[in-house]
Design brief:
alpha/beta, 281 residues, 7-stranded parallel β-sheet, globular, two-stranded parallel ribbon
């Protein structure tokens, strides 16, 4: 069975690795924390410490070279699931516009090129579309407004243009799960904006199953949006969720929203013959 390397065994990467192991894959998983090595090992993941840095520093670091080479060794597929985490990263830089996340992705490229990896799946975000209104498909020109969205889009392009491996881009909407839901942060708050903006969410279970299908069906050199076909307004959805979880109801501003962005996952459902688990929403 194929060996897969997962760069970033966090909220999504860890349960994804568990599921792939259940399916018979061998999984190398990375973490940035020594304390988490045993957590990965205990669930059957081959654990590695991988801390990405800017290109020049990475190429000059013998320890980084050893760790990333070992992490990628003998894997045919690499899944990159690391968030930009840009807050404060440029605080000590002479260039406030420096693309730290992009540099980290660039630092990976030489190591992927000389490894056995031929397929890359990059977990991105629908934030690359910005606040475009209307129905958003994979054919919509990205127009990111946030710094993280801008750097994700640049990272996508770096991977897609490389001819040494095939890259599929998977753009997730807002991530939710049993232990992660935005209503917990909105509960009890007042004067919340964009009351009638549609929600564009995806549950952790769907994230994992879609990645499994991309691998199983060898859907490479593709771009997929992954958002549940369920788009009530923010006010409707979060009010109901607060009631369901016995939380203080959020209160929304009476001002109407001009954001009407709906992310379409029609390509994902059709190309992968995929059905979302709408009971999770």
């Amino acid at each position: 069975m194929t060996q897969i390397s997962i760069l970033g065994c966090g909220w999504l990467g860890l349960p994804l690795a568990k599921k792939l192991i259940e399916k018979g894959y061998t999984v190398n998983g990375s973490t940035t924390s020594e304390n988490k090595l045993s957590v990965l090992e205990n669930v059957g993941i081959n654990p590695f410490i991988v801390i990405l840095s800017e290109v020049e520093a990475a190429l000059e670091s013998e320890s980084f070279s050893e760790s990333i080479n070992a992490f990628l060794a003998n894997s045919e597929i690499l899944i990159i699931d690391i968030p930009p985490k840009l807050r404060g990263t440029n605080a000590d830089s002479s260039d406030p516009y420096r693309k730290i996340f992009v540099e980290k992705i660039e630092s990976l490229i030489p190591f992927i090129e000389k490894s056995a990896v031929k397929k890359v799946l990059f977990v991105s975000s629908t934030s690359v579309y910005g606040d475009e209104n209307g129905l958003i498909t994979e054919e919509t020109n990205p127009n990111p407004e946030t710094e993280s969205g801008k750097q994700l889009l640049l990272a996508e392009a770096i991977l897609q243009k490389n001819q040494n491996f095939e890259t599929t881009i998977l753009r997730f909407g807002g991530l939710i799960g049993e232990d992660r839901h935005p209503v917990k942060f909105l509960a009890g708050k007042e004067n919340l904006e964009n009351r009638d903006a549609p929600v564009n969410l995806i549950h952790q279970d769907d994230c994992i199953r879609i990645i499994e299908e991309i691998i199983n069906q060898s859907k490479w050199n593709e771009v997929f949006n992954a958002v549940a076909p369920f788009h009530p307004t923010r006010e409707e959805y979060y009010t109901q969720q607060a009631k369901n979880q016995n939380l203080v109801l959020p209160k929304f501003s009476a001002e109407k929203s001009n954001i009407k962005k709906v992310i379409s996952s029609e390509k994902t459902t059709n190309s992968l013959s995929y059905q979302f688990s709408l009971e999770n929403y």
